[in-house]
Write a structure and sequence with these properties.
Layout: E1 8-18, E2 22-29, E3 32-39, H1 40-46, E4 53-57
Antiparallel strand pairs: 1-2, 1-4, 2-3
Length: 67
């Protein structure tokens, strides 16, 4: 699959918190933790589970820098 997004971070799923409609997915990429909220339907269709290796594709109109 090809995609135009350039901000891709590979990581491993550490936690999945399921709600009625959404799931909070926590993954570790290097030394960083990334938290994403996706629909529960999407998580179930993808068969996501703890330990899966996935790619976080980040698309944002704003990226903040902190020092």
């Amino acid at each position: 699959m090809k995609i135009s997004g350039q901000n891709k971070l590979a990581g491993e799923i550490l936690a999945i918190k399921k709600g009625e409609i959404e799931c909070q997915i926590t993954l570790k990429s290097g030394e960083n933790m990334i938290v994403s909220v996706i629909t529960r339907d999407s998580a179930e269709e993808m068969g996501l589970k703890i330990g899966d290796h996935v790619i976080a594709l980040i698309k944002s109109t704003e990226v903040m820098i902190m020092k």
